[in-house]
Amino acid sequence: RSRQGCPRTRVDACERHIYSSAPSPSDAPSGRSSARPHPPADTKMVLFTAEGRQSTKARRVADLTDPPSESYASDSKKEALCLEYVRQFRSKFVALFPKRRELFLAPQNEFGCSKFVCTTVRPTLLPFDQLYEAKPLAKFVANFLQYEPLEAPDAFPSVLPSPTQVVQWKCGDCFDFAVLLCSWLQGNGYDAYVVCGYAPSYITLKDQSKLPPPVLEDEPLPPDDESDEEREDPVAQQLRDARAEGRYLYKERGVPESKYEVMMAEREAAEKAAAAKTSDDESSDEEDAETAEVEPDNSSSLHAWVMLRPFKRGITETTFIEPTTGNFYNAEEAPYHGVESVFNADNYWVNMQEQSKRCGSLETDLDNTDNWEFVFMDPMPKKKEVPVVDGPPPLPGDVVESEEEEEDNILDLPPSWVSSVSLKMDDFVRCYPPDGTRTTLYKKAKLELFAAGTNDQGLISRLVLYDDSSRTSVKECVERFKYRRDLLRKRRRVPSEARLEEDFLPGRLGGLKTLVEVAGRRREYAFHAKGRTDGLLTRVEDVGEKVVETFAKRPDRLVYRALRTQRVALGAASKLQYTLPAAEGSGELIVEKMTQKFAPDGEETGEDVDVRRFRVKEGRIETKCHYKKHAVTRPTILHEKGGADAAEDEDLQRILKAERDCLAGMRKAQIEVLELLKTRRREEATVVVDRPVFETAREKKASEGTTIDSAGDPRAVDYLTPFLAHVVDPASITHDEAQRARDACLKSLKERLVERANIMMARLTEENSKLSKKQAAYQRNARDRDAVAEEEFERFCAEAMFRIQILEQRLASHEETALKKFQDLDAKLAADPRMRALQE
Question: Residue 604 and residue 599: Cα distance in Å, rounded?
Fold first, then answer.
């Protein structure tokens, strides 16, 4: 009988006890190996994982009521025949190998019905592109399920639930993890197998506190429009072009140094680093030895993991996956101690090699019958050959011998009794049930994972590295974000260096890509090439001392701009000195030197500017041109400011204008970065996390069933409802009531049309007034304006004229359609059957 009284195939109870994969220790053959002893029957071993969890499978199974389908609680005829065949296979195997462990062939499912383990694996393809590859799928399973240890470390589980039930429970032991992961991997096209074997205790208890932290990979960003060649140093590009053309460019050799001294210095530094590392390892080992607990015998810990064989989905070598952590190992690095058997949805193979062989020396060719014994014949059907008939065709009634009858007698594997292992969208989004978070301790590290949209700061992961094994002194903290309105993607903090690094997604105002700040000393900015109109790529700022900017794709061929400053108190600088604004409360910056570098124009005439240095403090300007073709020298021009004929020197005036433009550009960039820092402080003070679009759509769809549909009430959507409020009987409207309703309705439309026209006229008048005031102010300050002011005025005029043009078009369109709307409403009222009293 089955649980809950469901019908099932009748099989003798003693036979079910024989081929059950979890026999009691007292029923085990006497010739069992002493290397892996079974615990006594009266000893109850309670295991706890590193997270403090113990096995609750028995309680969860007892709480189940009705099976989802009949196949979960009963056996079909083919399944009963399969179980009988498996029983005979197991009996022969025990007779031939009495010292081998019992095979994990036919455990009971969650409804007390014995099933062949291969039919428990249900290949399923999930409808999520993010889970199509093996690595993200393994990480998802490891984090989606909560791990529980086996009921006994040296016995197979007495119950192997279906993968669908494991997804509903969201927890399980290593066999539940492996079967679920293998089902999804086979559905994705991988040649995956569940491996039954032995593993060390830190794996069976999911203790990762002695392992190094994982390397988290960032999501790939869309490619930028700047190639690697455009990002290279223009001097290096110039040198490469010169060498290609056979030209000679002078290169400073510097002070000669001894190669032997350099080699000895490197050797001494390497010895010091090795000694420091050895001392750190010894201190760490001492700390670990003080806090470590006595580990159980690793050889007696049963475990299940997943194996991927090559030649499918790009797998080039045999790979092992630990389903409880999602870690991948090759055959040489796999930490497992031995293999008993492997299985998947196609067949079951018993390892005939030495069971204590590690994975590195294990032969994984399952077609080799000397190393692997299969339970069923080859499940792949052979191609039928067309028989060649010699002589005349057979007459009706003749008996023809055929080999198909012999093939039909071969027992094949029954189909899986498990329904499709689907995954709900809510479970996929909240990938760390039940609260959407996971915390894992590693060696000198702690990793916290958050489901997207559950953290109020937008966090999806936080990796904290420590200096000590007790995890008290923070060395580094790396945080990753998602769905933040400020487009923050990643943040890295190094407290010992007061260093802060932030990465941003494309689309942020100003095109900011990365921001690196060492408090009070240095700031580094990088910008997305597509997000800037001035071609700014990087900006490096030594606070109060120097600023260096690099550019690309500028029409003036500017590629480099530098500024050297000196910080003074606010108001201490004279009016004749060039100054820049500093941060709040930091005084102001006096400009001492400015440098510009330009890319060559390609003509090689020797007249295009290469480097221009404005020595503001000394009152000199130095200009160097690019090398002329086949030349080893280049022109250098010096200009002195403040000379008697300075006002008449046109060349000097042109250089002075370039100096003012350079200062204006640096001042504009300085104001921009100061405003950027203020914006970042405001954004961190009030973090805004945008909800994903699919979550909003799903909630809206769910709420549509509870909203009141007003379409059934004609008065709620009728255009005449507000104007028929005075009517006593809406079924029979008098002539006066209809006339009043018609006049009120037309009057309301007229007032609305006039109001909209007035609003447009007011906005148009306001825009014209702003433009006139701006033009008047620009004309009054004609003498003091510079290139930046002219650029701002032109941009303002363009935007204002665009708004004025749009408003004029809207006003003209409104005047054309207003009369038509009035006439359409009048005709609609005349045709309305409720207004028929006006025609009588």
Answer: 11
Strand order in the sheet with 338-343: 327-330, 319-322, 302-308, 192-198, 338-343, 348-351, 372-374
With beta carbons less than 8 A apart as the criterion, state whether 486 and 683 touch: yes
User: Tokens 């390609």 belong to which residue?
Assistant: 602
Greater confidence (296 vs 775) lies with: 775
pTM of the model: 0.64
For the chain, the straight-line distance linking the first and the last C-alpha, in angstroms and rounded, comes to 85
**CB–CB of 80/9 below 8 Å?**
yes
- Looking at residue 363, its amino acid is E
CA distances from 106 to 20, 90, 157, 224, 287 (A): 6, 10, 11, 56, 46
> What pLDDT score does 333 carry?
84
Token duo for residue 590 = 């006096």
User: What is d(CA 166, CA 433) in angstroms, rounded to the nearest whole number?
Assistant: 13
Gap between the Cα atoms of 372 and 366, Å rounded:
6
Write the DSSP symbol of residue 783: T
- Please give the Cα distance from 483 to 450 (Å, whole number): 13
- 582: closest CA among 594, 566, 561? 566
**Out of 2-16, 315-329, 419-433, 646-660, which region has the weakest mean confidence (pLDDT)?**
2-16
Q: 327-330 and 437-442: which strand pairing?
A: unpaired
Per the document, the length of the chain is 840
In sequence order, the β-bridge partners of residue 560 are 550, 597
SS3 of residue 382 by DSSP: coil
User: 566: phi > 0 → left, psi -120 to 50 → alpha, else beta; which?
Assistant: beta
CA separation for the pair 593, 618 (Å, rounded):
9
Distance CA 484, CA 688 (A): 6
Neighbours of 391 (CB within 10 A): 5
- Taking the C-alpha atoms of residue 257 and residue 827, their distance in angstroms, rounded to an integer, is 99
With bands split at pLDDT 50, 70 and 90, how would you rate the model's confidence at 493? very high
Predicted local distance difference test score (pLDDT) of residue 28: 35
d(CA 263, CA 438): 48
64 φψ region: left (φ > 0), alpha (ψ -120 to 50), beta (else) = beta
Q: What tens digit of pLDDT does each residue of 34-85 get?
A: 333 333 434 444 555 656 577 788 888 888 888 888 888 888 888 888 888 8
Indicate the residue type of 639.
H
**Which of 100, 304, 321 has its CA nearest to residue 192?**
321
Binning pLDDT at 50, 70 and 90, where does residue 296 land? very low
| Burial track 99-114 (b if 16+ CB lie within 10 A, e otherwise) | ebbbbbbbbbbbbbbb
In whole angstroms, give the CA distance from residue 621 to residue 709. 77
Residue 510 backbone class (left: φ over 0; alpha: ψ -120 to 50; beta: rest): left
- List the one residue out of 538, 80, 468, 131 whose CA is nearest residue 291: 468
Least confident among 205-209, 376-380, 620-624, 688-692:
376-380
The bridge status of strand 437-442 relative to strand 579-581 is: unpaired
pLDDT score of 783? 66
pLDDT tens digits, 751-771: 888 998 999 899 999 988 888
Give CA separation, 766 vs 123, 182, 304, 775, 807, in Å.
68, 69, 75, 14, 11
Question: Looking at the DSSP assignment, which residues form a beta bridge with residue 146?
Answer: 171
Q: How would residue 773 be classed by pLDDT, with cut points 50, 70 and 90?
A: confident
Closest CA to 90 of 2, 27, 26: 27
Residue 190 structure tokens: 């991988």
The whole-number pLDDT of residue 720 equals: 77
Predicted confidence at residue 158, as pLDDT, reads 87
Q: What is the pLDDT of residue 6?
A: 38
**Unique residue bearing structure tokens 């009369």:** 819
